[in-house]
Design brief:
Pfam families: RVT_3. This protein has about 140 residues and is an alpha/beta fold. The chain has helices spanning about 50-65, 80-85, 95-105, 125-135; strands spanning about 5-15, 20-30, 35-45, 70-75, 110-115. β2 and β3 form a beta hairpin.
């Protein structure tokens, strides 16, 4: 994959119980919508908002590891997207930690974009989060 290409990263976090057992799903896709990497991980007990932030953070960390420089994150969490863009204030101290880490990592990208998408457009990341939730490991 050329560094000139933009990578689309679909992120989703889920919590059963809110707070409760939580997991994340992250799908890395090329310009043609072909998935070339994914994450499906349990993250312990967390609220849904923490799980959503955790998914974004893990996606950013993995993109940096893979030397991806042009990136477009897609999330179905309007809260996380608006907090990341500065449209909403982050009042929860647990979420503040995630936001500051993500803000720090943002500078690692040549081009960084984050956008809210409807849940239906985030089906793969949701599937990955649910797979982690349902796995016995």
């Amino acid at each position: 994959m050329s560094t000139k290409d933009t990578t689309f990263v679909y992120c989703d976090g889920s919590s059963r119980g809110n707070p409760g057992p939580a997991a994340i799903g992250v799908s890395f896709q090329n310009n043609d919508g072909i998935e070339f990497f994914f994450l499906s991980e349990k993250i312990g007990n967390a609220t849904n908002n923490i799980a959503e932030w955790h998914a974004l953070l893990r996606g950013m960390e993995e993109a940096i590891k893979q030397n991806i420089r042009k990136i477009k994150f897609r999330l179905d969490s309007e809260l996380v997207v608006k907090q990341m863009k500065g449209e909403y204030k982050v009042k929860n101290k647990d979420l503040m930690g995630f936001k500051s880490k993500c803000e720090e990592l943002k500078s690692s990208f040549e081009n960084f974009e984050i956008q809210y998408i409807p849940r239906e457009q985030n089906a793969r990341a949701d599937q990955l989060a649910n797979f982690a939730q349902d796995s016995k490991v």
